[in-house]
Structure formats: C-alpha cells, structure tokens
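User: structure tokens for this one?
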Amino acid sequence: MPKVKTRRGAAKRFRFTGSGKIRRNKAYLRHILAHKSATQKRNLRKAGAVSSADEKSVRRLLPNG
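Assistant:
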C-alpha cells in the first residue's frame, strides 16, 4: 500500500494533545476587532478543543491520529 498523504491544510490548523484530543485555534480574531472587548480577544487567543461531533472527520484528515 502507498503511504497515506496528510491533508496539509488540516495539518496547519490542528495538532494533537498528549492525551489524544485535537487542539484548534479559535475564529473571529482576524479583523473587526475594535468593537470586541479585551476579555473576548484575550479568550480567543487561547486554543480550543475540536468538538466531539467534528472529531471523527478531523482525525480522518490527519493520518497520525
């Protein structure tokens, strides 16, 4: 069998934690930041986890998961 190719777009967006969960960056921090509060922008900088509904499809894109 040939080697499985990683979906490069997914590899740049997701990474695995030590326990096997998938980390992701949060959206809404690219532009139109003036009306967002400092607390909201600070919380958007933190990484989130992929939801359980989406985890199966994201794992399919990343063969090392």
